[in-house]
Amino acid sequence: MPSSMHDVQSFHKLASFYKRFIRNFSSITDPMTIVLKGSKFVLTSQAQKSFEELKEKLTQAPVLPLPCFDKIFKVE
Fold first, then answer.
1. Can you give the pLDDT of all 76 residues of the chain as single tens digits?
2. Closest to 37 measured CA to CA, from 74, 18, 12, 3
3. Which residue, 4, 7, 2, 72, is CA-closest to 40?
4. Which residues fall within 8 angstroms of residue 73, CB to CB, at 6 or more apart?
5. Can you give the pLDDT at residue 65?
């Protein structure tokens, strides 16, 4: 859990490197961004949830199953 403004900045920069792999990245990180805009470090409960969700998404590998070729599928 981040305990200072520097910790939040460091984690946010690290996570931003992988943002193209995380769906709705900006929506998830919005509470942490609000913390960074403040002049004083106050970790809100929303920012804490944001941190936990982002940490979970960064540490879990996505599962890519083989498609069923009998059905129509779309690649994004």
1. 888 899 999 999 999 998 888 889 999 999 999 988 988 888 889 999 999 999 999 888 777 777 788 988 777 7
2. 12
3. 4
4. 67
5. 75
The encoded tokens of residue 32 equal 């942490």
Question: Alpha helix locations (H) across 1-76?
Answer: 5-17, 25-37, 45-59
CA dihedral 62, 65, 66, 71 (to 10 degrees): -110
Question: What token pair was written down for 27?
Answer: 């929506």
d(CA 57, CA 27): 13
d(CA 72, CA 42): 49
Closest C-alpha to 23, from 49, 54, 52, 44:
54
Q: What is the pTM of this model?
A: 0.72
